[in-house]
Amino acid sequence: MGKVLDLSLILFALYVSTAAIAMARNLGEESKDDTEFVKASCETTTYPELCFQSLSSYASEIKKRPLQLAETALAVSMARAKSAKTYISDMTDYKGITKRQHEAVLDCVEEMGDTVDRLSKSLKELKSLEEGESKEDFWFCLSNVRTWTSAALTDETTCLDGFGGKGMDGELKSLVRAHIVRVAQDTSNALALINVYASKH
C-alpha cells in the first residue's frame, strides 16, 4: 500500500511539475508577444527607440491593446512633463541668472503647466473610450484627445522659443532644453500611437 501511495505521489508531482513548466512557457511566450507588439507599434512613431525604451516595461499591462498603449504613452508623457516642470521651476534660483533668462524660465514653467493640464485632459478623455461610446461620440472624444495633445506639443515648443537668441545661450538654456526636448519627444510618440489607435476604427 505504501509503494502504491509513493508512486501516486511521484506521478502527481510529475504532473504538477509538467503543468508548471507548460504554464511558465506559455507566460513567457505571451510576455514576448506583448513586448513585440509594443516594439512594432513604436516603429510607427517619430522616435521609435525612445518609445520602446519608455513603454516596453509596461508590455504585460498593455497586452497588445492599442488603446491601452496610447493611454500608457500619454501617462508617461504627462509624468515626464510634471518632472520637467518641477525641475525648471527650481531654475529660477539658478546662479547668475539674468532678468531675461528669469522671465523665460517663468514663462516655460507656465507652458509646462499647460502641457500637464492638456495631457491630463487627453488621458481622461481617452480612458472614457473604454466605456464604449457611440460612433459619433467616439470620434468627438478622439478629436479632443488629438487637439489637446497637439496643443501640448505647441506649449513645449513655445517654452524653447523663449530661450531663442545668442544672448540666451549657455548652461541654463542647455539644461532646460534637454528636459523639454525629452517631453516633446514623448508627447510626439504618444500622439503617433493615438493616431495608430484611431486608424483601427
UniProtKB/TrEMBL annotation:
Residues 1-20 form the signal peptide. SUPFAM superfamilies: Plant invertase/pectin methylesterase inhibitor. The keyword Ligase does not apply. InterPro entries: Invertase/methylesterase_inhib, Pectinesterase_inhib_dom, PME_Inhibitor. Keywords: Signal. The keyword Transport does not apply. One of its GO terms (molecular function) is pectinesterase inhibitor activity. Residues 33-193 form the Pectinesterase inhibitor domain. Belongs to the PMEI family. This is Pectinesterase inhibitor domain-containing protein.
